[in-house]
Structure formats: structure tokens, C-alpha cells
């Protein structure tokens, strides 16, 4: 149990940082939110990989990073103030 949670936190950190590096533009968020979005991206990416039948670890990471990037765009859109 602890190994799985710890793995998601470390993986989420890596995925969140990679997503922020790949996604263009400034993201005014802290490390905690980066980790949270990375963890959610990892979970969503893992789920999508399972649905698509992806078994390659490298492709699973790519899907998770892609999901985290999409989440960054959604987060950015939700934070924008309406005029």
C-alpha cells in the first residue's frame, strides 16, 4: 500500500514537472499543485492506457504526461478571471 502511494507521489512529481516543461506558457502554481496535477495525470493516463491496451511502460508514461498537459490547460482555463 505505502509503496503504491509513494510511487504515485514520486511519479506524479516527475510527470507534473515534465508536463510543465513541455507545455508552453507560464504556469503560476506551486510545487504541491504540480504534484497533484501530475498524480491525477498519472492516474488518468494509467486508466487510458488500460482502456487502449497499452502495455509498454514508455507509452504509458507518454500517455500520463499527455494527460497531465491536458489537465494543465484545464487548470489554466479554470483559473482565468472572467471580465
From TrEMBL:
Pfam families according to UniProt: Transgly_assoc
InterPro entries reported in the protein's UniProt record: Transgly_assoc
Signal peptide: none
Subcellular location: Cell membrane
GO cellular component, one term: plasma membrane
Membrane topology: Multi-pass membrane protein
Keywords attached to this entry: Cell membrane, Membrane, Transmembrane, Transmembrane helix
Regions that span the bilayer: 6-22, 29-52, 58-78
PANTHER family tied to this protein: UPF0410 PROTEIN YMGE (PTHR33884)
Family named by the database record: Belongs to the UPF0410 family.
Protein name (Swiss-Prot/TrEMBL): GlsB/YeaQ/YmgE family stress response membrane protein
Native organism: Thermomonas brevis
Source lineage: Bacteria, Pseudomonadati, Pseudomonadota, Gammaproteobacteria, Lysobacterales
Amino acid at each position: 500500500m505505502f509503496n503504491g502511494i509513494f510511487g504515485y507521489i514520486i511519479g506524479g512529481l516527475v510527470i507534473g514537472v515534465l508536463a510543465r516543461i513541455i507545455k508552453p506558457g507560464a504556469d503560476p502554481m506551486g510545487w504541491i499543485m504540480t504534484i497533484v496535477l501530475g498524480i491525477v495525470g498519472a492516474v488518468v493516463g494509467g486508466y487510458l492506457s488500460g482502456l487502449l491496451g497499452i502495455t509498454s511502460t514508455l507509452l504509458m508514461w507518454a500517455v500520463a504526461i499527455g494527460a497531465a498537459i491536458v489537465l494543465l490547460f484545464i487548470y489554466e482555463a479554470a483559473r482565468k478571471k472572467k471580465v
